[in-house]
Amino acid sequence: MNIVTHIGVIFGGKSYEHQISIRSARYVFQSVGQRHSSGNLLLHPFYIDQEGLWRSQTYASNVIISNQNALDHEEKKPFPFSYSMIDCWFPLVHGQFGEDGQLQKQLEQTELPYIGSDAQTSLRCYDKIRSRQVAKSMGIHQPQYLFFKSAGNQTNEDLKEAIIREIKFPFFVKPAKTGSSIGISRVKNEEEIIAALELAQSYDHNILVEEAVENCLEIEIAFIGSKKIRLSIPGTVDYEDEFYTTMAKYSTHTTQNRALKNSNEPLKTQLNKQTAKIINCFNVKDMGRVDFFYDQKHDILYWNEINTVPGMTKKSMFPFLWKAQGLGIESIIDKNVREKLY
Fold it and tell me: What are the tens digits of pLDDT across the range 216-273?
């Protein structure tokens, strides 16, 4: 007799990535079905609305099916509705509240295991400034950067002057705490700096500025597991935008994921070595994605970021890379659940 493991799939949230989270959860349910084909996993939807409040499973199911909030009169709670049947949580909330440790702290109050890194690790990875500082202390090669924490008495003209002194064009201006390229600008000249700062500041008071890597191939590697980490093959994304924008990630039909099955062996070895080092340095576990910039002309690899709750939409790199190796979402969940519970 098979033992059925009940998985609480959490999605939505109050970040700017709310709709992306819904798309991730919808793709998981479409890929796995409510019940995994082996009968061992049973998925239950748990939806957090844009106020940060939990809704009933009936409401959550309605969002998964139609994205319509037809039952808005239903009760809202600051904590999950009945979860006595749940054996393990599977958070798919992207951005603030989902990747910054807040949701993880809340889940720890349920005294149930959850897939993903703990609260402290999540925040360290999500905050671009903190993650850059951790990487620097560990000797991880990354682009030249500069950051501003709550500018205080400094005007944007002051920040502009500091950037020009320290950072070469072109460069990126980023909010410290957003995902999916939200609020990010690629700056090519002095005239574009103020607008880029203002856009980033509309999302976060803390700002990261980093040099763009020229001759760049963006490379991503997924990982799963905790007791025994497994790395995917590397992949890249072909897109037409100036950089890998939110539009390119989720809306543009011309964007294409591409597995780098035949990339040169020295580069693969370096990627795997650096990915393993980063996973260890940040103490991440269960699942995630590590992103790099590769200067093809000078053969230099730069670390970009680590994502502890990677996108699970049908356009996302994480499921694409595993599918290229014959591993479906249901197997990814099953592997993590087995390590958590057995």
Answer: 999 999 999 988 899 999 999 886 666 556 665 656 666 788 999 877 889 999 999 9
Model pTM score: 0.91
- Residue 72 — very low, low, confident or very high, per pLDDT cuts 50/70/90? low
CB 260 within 8 A of CB 236: yes
The residue written with tokens 């080092």 in the block is 277
84: helix, strand or coil: coil
**Distance between CA atoms of 80 and 65, rounded to whole angstroms?**
20
Which tokens go with 194? 């103020």
Domains, the chain, in order of start with CATH, read: 5-114 (3.40.50.20), 125-141+214-341 (3.30.470.20), 145-211 (3.30.1490.20)
Count of residues for the chain?
342
Which residue spans within 184-285 are E strands per DSSP?
185-187, 207-211, 216-225, 230-231, 235-238, 256-259
Which tens digit of pLDDT belongs to each residue from 180-217?
678 899 999 999 999 999 999 999 999 999 999 988 99
3-state helix, strand, coil in the chain (%, to 5): 35, 25, 45
Q: What is the DSSP letter of 49?
A: -
Cβ contact 103:109 at 8 Å: no
Strands 256-259 and 286-295, how do they pair? unpaired
Q: 239 Cβ partners below 8 Å, 6+ apart?
A: 245, 248, 252, 254, 255, 256
